[in-house]
Amino acid sequence: MPLIAVRLLSLWLLLAGLAYPAQAQTAGTDSLRGILAHTPADSSRVLLLLKLAHTYRASRPDSTLHLAQQAWQLARQVGFAKGRGRAQGMIGAALRERGELPKAFANQLIALEISQKTNDLEGEASSQNALGNISFDLRQYRQAIYYYSRARALYARLNLPHWLAGSVTNIGSCYEKLGVLDSALLRQQEAEKLIARHPRPRLAAALALRNMGVVQARLGHPAEAMRYYRRAQRETYANNDLRNRAMTHYHMAMLYQRLHQPDSSLVHARLAVQAAQKVSFRLTIMEASSLLTRLYQARHNVDSAFHYQGLYITAHDQLFGPEKFQQLQLLSFNEQQRQVRQREAGERQTVRYQRSGLLAGLVFLLLMALLFWRSSQQQRRVNAQLSERNSQIKAQRNDLSKALEELRAAQTQLVAAEKWAFVGELSAGIAHELQNPLAFMQNFANVSVALLDPDARPTARDRTPGLEQEILAGLRQNLREISQHGQRASAIIADMLAHARTGTSQQELVDLNALVEENLRLAYYGSPVPDGTTAVELHTSFGANLAQISVVPSELGRALLNLFANALYAVRHRQQQGETGYRPLVSVSTRRVGEEVEIRVHDNGVGMSEATAAQAFQPFFTTKPMGDGTGLGLSLSHDIVVKGHRGTLSVESREGAFTEFTVRVPA
């Protein structure tokens, strides 16, 4: 096609776009702004700011980010946790569309946690869908299917068909990328039916139509694919959806290239780059620039090929550069330990993706060297810089792997040290327990020596009948008492070693009330008592007729001992503050709740804030002064109850008032 024809086609497409409203969201946006001007600074204003931010998502992501940040600040000021979670998710969505994948990932994890805590199912579904989008951008399609499926279930439960259609078409896109075209077609047909049954609002119409076009193109139906692409374009102009418009232009360009129509492919690829640049949608900028580079190379247009190659490299680095890769690694490292295997699999996949990208970059640079043979000297400098950069990336990756191993080793050592720290806490109580049997043993031994002392024995003249038998009987009784108290001391020492033992033990039937009472006594005698303070009151309320339960006594005892020690520490810390009329009190109760038994540990100590209580069971988190704790005690207790006994451990607290831990284990 001659150059003039290409220009005429571009002009026609531009005029076709102008035939639609240029600012389709303006009426709704202006209406929302008018309402916002008269809305007080409360939770309703937070939701209104988020609704206004959503109208800009596809056309002005910077405005979306700014309004979402305003909503977050206001939600925090008025204590609106649900609004804070939704604002965090909106911030994450805007960051993802700008290519800030690590920051977007972190924000969505926070939003998901807040939504789950506030039982905000719609916010949770939005975060799950957004995590699927980030996984899709990172080419982790099966992980994306996992997130999209969870979002789909929530949207179906909430009866939100327009959002449900979006999650279904996203699942179809993942199957298309994986090459499972029959499943991809089924999902896209399902999304199309949902949109047809519920035409308003048409939130996912452009997305679903474009995705159906992609599947039809993969199935070898170019005419049908082009019809879906054109319908998608009309939707984007009707809603000023620049993001989906850019992606649709890119897929049309790819289809024209496969149909051997390079002129049409060139036009749509350029339109894709222009639309994507308006909303800083770097993924489409990268893909369309790569296609334009190949098209201009085929035309031997070196300048344009070099220009779009630069756009491709810049967008690629912004999305998947070494710095972003490191941020994602560090972010994944801080996740829960239960996600370690999943995180490591993701890291391995990311490393493979990076290596593939580097290989593709080297091949592409070789092709560029052949095209720009007149500038070979400059090309050699570029290759040298790239080689140096690859070495730096490899060195940084090795450093990160080494640091990760060192942190894991340190964590293992600290966990072991924390377990031995329990032995230290037990020592005072055990010493108190050992004093009684040892004192009895010494007394009985002294009496026995006295009975055997020749000087103390009566002479034959003074000897009364049966006296020797009484002495022998007394000796036998003393020896039995010494043996019994020696066995008791041995049992106490054996229990101490059982507390210190690492690894897992066999479960056995125990009296829960006796186990709780024993560890409460050990914690009380083992905790230091500040000078000039009164004794702590201990209140117990043990449920009657609790059947014996199957537990690991040493492990569950260690967990309970730590909870009791924390309670005693809290009340004595408040006692040292000199509060008038304060009486330190620790209450412990047990009872049966359905198929479980419950242990509650309540204290009227210093308490915790909401933020502190939320982190109480995280490893290495502590509010105690340096040297008073490692931050592993509650984390170990949580693992013992949850992982070792399939139970639950929760905390409720109010700063300056109380703290209550609740343990539940199967009966």
Concise structural overview:
Helix content is 71%, strand content 7%. The chain is α+β, with helices and mostly antiparallel strands and 667 residues long.
Low-confidence stretches: 1-26
Class of the domain at 508-666 in CATH?
Answer: Alpha Beta
**CATH H level of the domain at 508-666: which superfamily?**
Histidine kinase-like ATPase, C-terminal domain
Biggest pleated sheet: 5 strands, mixed
In CATH, the architecture of the domain at 508-666 is 2-Layer Sandwich
**Silhouette:** elongated
Number of helices: 24
Question: What is the residue-mean pLDDT, rounded to a whole number?
Answer: 81
The CATH topology of the domain at 508-666 turns out to be: Heat Shock Protein 90
Write out the strand line-up for the largest beta sheet, numbering strands in chain order. Answer: 2-4-5-7-6
> What amount of the residues lies in strands?
5-15%
Structural class: alpha+beta
End-to-end separation in angstroms reads 80 Å
Helix content: over 70%
Number of strands: 7
Assembly state of the chains shown: single chain
How many whole angstroms does the radius of gyration measure?
A: 36 Å
